[in-house]
Amino acid sequence: MSKVSAKRQVTLPIDYCETLGIQPGDEVEIFIYDGHLTLVKKTSGNAYGLLRNVKPKFDISDEESRQSAIT
After folding, report:
1. In Å, how far are 5, 7, 63, 64 from 2, measured between CA atoms?
2. 0.70 cut: is pTM over it?
3. Looking at domain 1-44, does it have CATH number 2.10.260.10?
4. pLDDT number for residue 51
């Protein structure tokens, strides 16, 4: 079981890192949803072109956009 240090840091178990291919120095993204943290290894190029055909909506705020994605 991991513990949170005084600096609010958590050590990831090595077997989890090996399973996900996480190495020292890798970047990760952390999301919070419904009281849970989700950690995802960031990899270069995975989302390339993903939003190429999405047109921006200028009549909606960033906060409204984030809330509509959650509900």
Report:
1. 9, 14, 33, 35
2. no
3. yes
4. 81
